[in-house]
Amino acid sequence: MLFRRRNKIPLIDRLRDFVWPRIGWLRTVTYYWRRLQRIPGTPSSIAAGFSSGVAASVTPAVGTHTVAALALAYAVRGNLVASVFGTLAINPWTATPVWFSTYYTGALILGWDKYGHVGAMDFVNMFVGLTEAVVQLDWRLFIEKVMPVFLPMMVGSGPVAIVVGFGSYLVLAPVLRRIQQRRAAKTAQRLEEARREGKDYVWQPR
Q1: What is d(CA 149, CA 117) in angstroms, rounded to the nearest whole number?
Q2: DSSP state of 117
Q3: How many domains is the chain built from?
Q4: Residue 87 domain-assigned?
Q5: Alpha helices in 38-146 (DSSP H)
Q6: In a domain, 195, yes or no
Q7: Residue 100 confidence (pLDDT) above 70
Q8: Cα distance between residue 158 and residue 77, in whole Å
Q9: End-to-end CA distance of the chain, in Å?
Q10: Is residue 92 part of a domain?
């Protein structure tokens, strides 16, 4: 099919690239940052879309982040493509602190004495139980194995999503605005130089 790889990548290699990209995290982040800069739209719409993706990804409802990001971006009139990029902010290296922050925030809201402390394995068991409960449609399994951790995370994800969403917007919007202004100034300068030399200016992406 069109756009399909000729040689399918083995599952183990795809999992390894997800945890540690073959080209390294620095080059991967640089690549996506440059792609984000080139998304058509105003700085505000791009930043709003990206922030929607970041906010949607802090919820423990793994597998629904992209849909939630698109819906949230649409609601705030953000860029839909940028919202998908925003979901990449939650990855194997950032997931653990996000999980702990959402859980402890939710535990404080719902009652610390009731939920207490959790460790890394509690999150692993919760996500395993969540997968099993969804696949088997086992509501009892969800209540017993998933809910004690999932509920505080869902409650806590609301305040955390607001903080990271607004925070990422406030940081990203002015940066994108300066980048677009700098590009516009360079384009105007090239047009002026071409006009003086009597040449037709051909725009080339930089």
Answers
A1: 10
A2: -
A3: 1
A4: yes
A5: 43-56, 65-75, 80-87, 95-110, 112-115, 120-136, 139-141
A6: no
A7: yes
A8: 20
A9: 32
A10: yes
